[in-house]
Design brief:
Helix content is 58%, strand content 2%. The chain has nine helices and four strands, in the order αααααααααββββ. Strands 1-2 form a two-stranded antiparallel ribbon. Strand 3 and strand 4 (369-370) form a beta hairpin.
Length: 380
């Protein structure tokens, strides 16, 4: 699968630019709100049940995340003109896409049911702030959903072109481990979204409202999509286009890692006296498993990509030029002139022909003379 073209059409390039610039512009509104909140907190204006330091640290972190997201949108818009190193780009797009793209189904259903909105600490936020936050999240999610797969298809075509059956089975054990780790939190999220109370703290069960159940159901859906994706990729499932499990698996694994890691940190450090609906140990365990499962999923996808880009194991070595003996390797072409005809070169010795014992090292056979290797016509 090597040699695949990453060239995309002008319409796809235009869509990538629109998605990237739109994502950056949208998230700029969210960034503006966060900067206002940090500035207000510096003057003592913080939510009632938040400490000033906790509120500032939390919002400074989200300022950094949103600034990174804006830069990411610009990188996607510019495309291959900016040759960003692969490792940081993959990680940032993986985390950023994992945070936002999976929220799109939830946002749609929540809007239809009249739910949603960001938690602001219990104090009512001005309407313009909530509008900016909503536009920032939604615009960034839509922009990433458009620009990110086009950019990745352009830069790493082997991951998206062809069918999985064109590849070999790769990292099967790793994919199964990721599936097992992810299945545990996915099962609890599914139960809680359906109204079950297993693992919930009786003192905080009231935190699981309709909006929370929608989020839990959305998380469970993407976890299961991620499991399907990595199992399909690792087993080279027949009749499956490569782009489908690759794109879904990249997004789902990013969601597991990003949200699992974020919630794990919140459950451990508990900023502002944070309490979760589930028991603290359950929150730590389930979110830790989710983050680990997402990381293993990404590792599986990358292993499959490396395998698809590698040359076939039975690929013939590069052919030597006619008449050249290269460091003891037999040339495929015949030395037709001179006394050496169809000579076999084995471990540096020319055995067939008139030169029998000459030591040939990177020598040229020209008109019967072995010039480099200290053996000339008449010697040996």
């Amino acid at each position: 699968m090597t040699g695949m073209s990453g060239v995309i059409g002008t319409r796809w390039a235009a869509a990538r630019r629109l998605g990237g610039y739109g994502a950056a512009a949208s998230l700029s509104l969210y960034l503006a709100v966060k900067v206002v909140w940090v500035a207000a907190a510096a003057f003592g204006h913080v939510p009632a049940h938040f400490g000033g330091a906790d509120w500032i640290v939390l919002n400074v972190v989200t300022v950094g995340m949103s600034a990174t997201g804006i830069a990411l949108g610009l990188v996607l818009a510019r495309g291959m003109r900016w040759r960003i190193p692969a490792a940081p780009l993959v990680f940032l797009t993986w985390v950023g896409g994992g945070f936002l793209i999976p929220l799109m189904p939830y946002s749609l259903v929540s809007a239809l049911l009249g739910g949603g909105g960001e938690e602001t600490g219990g104090d009512a936020a001005p309407s313009w702030e909530m509008t900016f936050i909503g536009i920032g999240f939604t615009g960034m999610a839509i922009g990433l959903a458009i620009a990110l797969p086009i950019y990745m298809r352009e830069r790493w075509p082997a991951a998206f072109l062809g069918r999985l059956s064109d590849r070999n089975r790769t990292a099967v054990g790793r994919a199964r481990t990721a599936a097992v780790l992810t299945a545990v939190p996915a099962a609890f999220w599914t139960l809680w979204s359906a109204g079950a109370e297993l693992g919930l703290d009786p003192a905080h069960r009231d935190l699981v409202d309709v909006n929370t159940r929608l989020l839990l159901g959305d998380s469970a859906l993407w976890a299961l999509l991620g499991v399907w994706s990595v199992l399909a990729v690792s087993s080279a499932r027949p009749n499956t286009p490569a782009w489908l499990p690759t794109a879904i698996g990249f997004t789902a694994s990013g969601s597991l890692f990003a949200w699992g890691g974020w919630k794990l940190a919140v459950a451990v450090f508990r900023p502002g006296g944070y309490t979760s609906a589930e028991y603290p140990i359950a929150a730590i365990a389930l979110n830790g498993l989710a983050a680990a499962g997402g990381l293993l999923m990404l590792s599986t996808l990358l292993a499959s990509l490396r395998a698809s880009e590698a040359p076939p194991a039975n690929a013939p070595p590069a052919n030597a030029q006619t008449g050249n003996a290269q460091t003891g390797n037999a040339p495929p072409a015949n030395a037709r002139t001179g006394n050496v005809q169809t000579g076999n070169v084995q471990t540096g010795n020319v055995q067939t022909g008139n030169v029998q014992t000459g030591n040939v090292q990177s020598g040229n056979v020209q008109s019967g003379n072995v010039q480099t290797g200290n053996a000339q016509a008449g010697e040996g």
